[in-house]
Amino acid sequence: MEQLPTVEETTASADFIIPDSSTRILTDDEVNTLDQNTARYALNEIYARRGRKFKDQELQNYFNGKSWYVGTIEPDNFDESSLTAIEKENTKKLDLRRNGKTVTAGATLPNAGYIKYFQDEYIKLGHQDVHTGGGHIKAMYGKNLGYGVNVYGRIYDRGDYYEFVNINLYTPYLYDSKPTDYMVEKTSEEDHDDYHGSYQLSNGKWVIYGDSDSKHSYVFYTGSIYMRKDAVIYSGRYSEPYEYKAYKLKDIIDDLSYGYWEISVYILELDENGYIKTMANQEWG
């Protein structure tokens, strides 16, 4: 039988290993000070608060002895989505620790599945030099400028980052051959005569580009993308490029989080985890 966790208990927290693990995100350092067994009980304490029962009889007996525990949900019926963002983050950290791993920065961040596309030259060339934005932005970011993003879904605060759901990442539509006059004409009509041209990529593909209308774009990823909380969004008018200004994402997040409207932005910069650091937005606001 495993030894039950031994912790210093105060009167206020006599029945808990970590009394506030459901109301604040635990630091990496404090989780790493726990031994594996204590981390195991601390992890399941979060589930127990939610009324989950346990298949492991030792765990069940342990929580049955707690004055606050009321087990009403069978293990197979427990819905993980009932956990808050804070609880989900803490369960990830405690699960790493109970398995003997050290929690490090970024260890519990979800995988940015779209990062592989940004490392693919075929995709990267799609928007290169099409949208120039402000002159100073192009000078700063050069060839990185141009991964298109349609933001029209919900934005969720995940503790250390924001999750944007229902996102399309796109480049202009890619053609196998040089566009015909008919193709160009149709693009111009559908883009309300806002047609700019076509050009050939280094991989032999061709693009027709008009305005930012996604009808002429190639969507290469649909799903969630992740934003750092210190991310910056450049906003301004293309006709007055030097009026582009940098805003902290957190300063405009309330306006975007309602999900009632759409903005089109361009991803400029990612961090080592594939989380977005910098974006540019034309005609925003």
From TrEMBL:
InterPro entries: YARHG_dom, YARHG_sf. It comes from the Bacteria. Gene3D superfamilies: 1.20.58.1690. This is YARHG domain-containing protein. It comes from Lachnoanaerobaculum umeaense.
